[in-house]
Amino acid sequence: MLVSQILRSKGDLVFTAKPTETVAEVARLLNSRKVGALVVLDAERVVGIVSERDIVRLVADGGAAALDQPISSCMTKDVIYADPGETVDTLLTRMTDRRIRHLPVCRNERLVGVVSIGDLVKHKISEVEAEADGLKAYIAAS
User: Please, are residues 94 and 103 in contact by the beta-carbon 8 Å criterion?
Assistant: First the structure.
């Protein structure tokens, strides 16, 4: 299965933040949107990604005062991307190797969606279940 197929089924809505928004503002956005990460955009350009973990680490180190810092102070600036034509297996490997949970999906340097490890695992499980059902039907017909 390709990333583009996952985006078609889950949608291409991406929650974003600006690099100048405060850590507190972004924490509220993460909570209200019920997501684990936001893509950070400067105009239309992806400049980072920020996760709940990034915020927890910053607050653990800097205390409550860290909440007033811009999110650019703790976002990951070296963003790892996915392409819509990549497979679920390829992305699962990349995410596991890099220990990341969210990948912005870009086509021609334009943000077109985001996938989480949960999205990929869900589709992988569906594939395996469909294959198992097919094998069961084949065995039953024999």
Answer: yes
* pLDDT, tens only, 65-83: 999 999 999 999 999 999 9
Query: Which tens digits make up the pLDDT trace of 92-103?
Result: 999 999 999 999
Domains and CATH numbers, the chain: 3-141 (3.10.580.10)
Helices H, strands E: what count in the chain? Answer: 5, 5
pLDDT band at 142 (very low <50, low <70, confident <90, very high): confident
- Tokens representing 24 are 């507190």
Encode burial over 108-134: b for 16+ CB neighbours within 10 A, e otherwise. eeebbbbbbbebbeebeeeeeeeeeee
How far apart are alpha carbons 54 and 52 in whole angstroms? 5
Q: Which of 102, 97, 4 is nearest to 46 (CA)?
A: 102
For residue 108, pLDDT beyond 90 = no
SS3 content of the chain, % helix, strand, coil (to 5): 55, 25, 25
CB 52, CB 36: distance < 8 Å = yes
